[in-house]
Write a structure and sequence with these properties.
- This protein is α/β, with parallel strands linked by helices.
- Among the domains are: 199 residues, no CATH class; 102 residues, no CATH class.
- 25% of the residues lie in helices and 24% in strands.
- The strands form six sheets. Strands 10-9-8-7-11-16-17-18 form an eight-stranded mixed beta sheet, sandwiched between helices. It has a five-stranded mixed beta sheet with strand order 1-3-2-4-5, with helices on both faces.
- Strand 9 and strand 10 form a beta hairpin.
- The radius of gyration is 23 Å and the shape is globular.
- The termini are close together.
Length: 531
């Protein structure tokens, strides 16, 4: 529970679920951060291989293992009792689909009466149990992201990477590359040209109309970068489904088969070289690619299996607004090194929830009908919610985008994996620390709080507020970020002191300060009362 400066109270209600069976807990390193592993009561086929995945997570994190019969949602009441800060769901790909991911997102917010997720969660799965166990093993040691490859223009400054290459999804036919040892990225035209032999009439007509006789082979260039660099991070956009990924303007596709990726050109097919090192895959601008679609034969499974994607965040529905995906990336690269990949996506989602509660608290709980034709007719329930605010059509569309994106990003991997961007020289220009102190007798009597968390922000002489807020990254999807802080340990019943007038949200796990007025060379403190 918490107290915040937004005027609307939460509309969420806790929903009782079936009881769970808890099994052994090894020596815990969790402290105030209990870790839960959710797993089926029995796995199909050779259950011992999948049980090894459960055991590996249990032993690493001192986790409680909770068993479900049909769905992890059965464990809601048991999770409320345990109240973990991290939850890993181990399951076979045949059980994992769109509604499975939506359900996990919603359940994570039902541990108490506020609208925020009370635990960070990730699905640990793979093409088979061997792949799922490899995901666990690959996340055992921390990782710093130093190299990247993308199909997006937005990271073209490449300042986060020792080496980076991308194909440009804005100027199709262009690409950029920052080679190892170089300080800047150089743009050039893609030299590869698509061989149209064998292309069907519809595709031939489309590409000829768009590019004439010279069709840039974007996919071939992307693969040269990807297979050549073996990057720590891959970020993609453009059209995708559960079964394929296209590069803008290319005739070819990446597809999946038997847990591997293969290249499908007219008249040519070949497998993408399997990786031997772990990586992070963020297809945050792709539709549907995060949906395993209840089958091992999916793009998600292939990336996790043959390409060793140890962390993977992607959409399980068609994406068009993109706040959940692009916002997570913005949190990751803004002040790089502050957040792990799972923390960055968690913080972005809570930022979304805070804004939705301020607009209309019903937006934080109302289910979205993804099967309706919401592009043709604005959902009547949204029109009713927005009526008192007298929104413009553009503002109403903004609400629709947040509501649509709220529950549809899947995170695959250990939610406690310490994987983060390397710091950018000269951009670590503020420091955040926190400490827990006991309230004095008079203060405790006046506030009802036994303790308080004191957060201190120190800005350097070269501090840039614009950089802290995201430096204008992807403004069409994500505006300026608030100042944010993920508490080193969870607080008990946090609330703001009476009289706190800053636009602030506090929760057991985090603090958000909207419109921070930080200036260079200053120190700022925030007090959060807690039990």
């Amino acid at each position: 529970m918490k107290k915040m400066s937004f005027p609307f109270a939460s509309a969420l209600c806790a929903i009782a679920a079936a009881a769970a069976v808890a099994v052994g807990c090894s020596n815990s390193d969790a402290g105030s951060e209990p870790y839960a592993v959710l797993a089926p009561a029995s796995f199909p086929g050779d259950s011992s291989a999948w049980e090894a995945v459960v055991s590996a997570l249990q032993q690493r994190h001192g986790a409680r293992v909770l068993r479900f019969t049909e769905s992890p949602l059965e464990l809601e009441s048991s999770l409320k009792e345990l109240y973990p800060r991290y939850v890993a769901v181990v399951d076979v790909p045949e059980n994992i689909g769109r509604d499975y991911v939506i359900g996990l997102n919603r359940m994570s917010r039902r541990m108490d009466s506020d609208p925020y997720a009370d635990f960070l969660w990730g699905i640990v799965t793979g093409y088979d149990a061997e792949g799922a166990l490899r995901m666990v093993e690959d996340s055992q040691e921390p990782m710093v992201i130093r190299t990247g490859v993308g199909s997006i223009k937005e990271l073209e400054s490449a300042k986060w990477f020792d080496s980076y290459a991308f194909v440009d999804d804005h100027q199709v036919g262009m690409c950029g590359e920052k080679k190892p040892g170089e300080d800047t990225l150089a743009m050039r035209r893609i030299s590869y040209v698509t061989d149209m032999t064998g292309a069907n009439g519809r595709i031939r007509e489309y590409v000829h109309r768009r590019f004439g006789d010279s069709v840039p082979d974007v996919l071939r260039q992307f693969l040269e970068f990807y297979e050549g660099y073996g990057p720590d991070l891959v970020v993609t956009a453009s059209h995708a489904t559960e079964n394929n990924l296209e590069m803008p303007g290319s005739v070819g596709n990446l597809r999946c088969r038997d847990g591997r990726l293969y290249v499908d050109y007219p008249g040519e097919q070949r497998f993408v070289a399997d990786r031997d090192s772990r990586m992070v895959y963020l297809p945050i601008g792709n539709c549907l690619i995060g949906n395993m679609n209840n089958t091992a034969n999916s793009m998600a499974a292939a990336w996790m299996n043959s390409q060793k994607a140890t962390a993977f965040a992607g959409y399980v529905v068609t994406t068009w607004y993109g706040r959940n995906g692009w916002g997570g990336l913005k949190y990751l690269i803004t002040n790089p090194g502050r957040y792990t990949v799972p923390e960055a996506f968690y913080m972005n989602q809570q930022d979304m929830m805070a804004q939705m509660e301020e607009w209309n608290d019903s937006l934080t709980a109302a289910p979205f009908d993804y099967d309706s034709d919401y592009f043709q007719t604005m959902p009547p329930v949204l029109v009713d919610m927005a009526a008192p605010a007298k929104l413009t059509p553009e503002e109403l569309f903004f609400w629709l985008g947040f509501w649509h994106d709220r529950d549809v990003l899947a995170y695959y991997g250990d939610p406690k994996w310490n994987v983060r961007m390397q710091e950018v020289p000269g951009e670590t220009d503020f420091k955040v620390t926190s400490r827990i102190v006991r309230c004095g007798r008079d203060e405790a009597s006046a506030t009802g709080a036994a303790r308080k968390c004191v957060v201190t922000v120190e800005t350097s002489p070269g501090f840039s507020l614009r950089r802290m807020q995201g430096d204008g990254f992807k403004e069409e999807h994500v505006l300026d970020l608030p100042f944010s802080y993920f508490f080193p340990e969870r607080l008990s019943n946090p609330r703001l002191p009476e009289g706190e007038s800053r636009h602030m949200v506090v929760d057991e796990n985090f603090l958000l300060l909207y419109d921070p007025a930080f200036e260079p060379g200053q120190t700022y403190t925030f007090e959060i009362l807690c039990d």
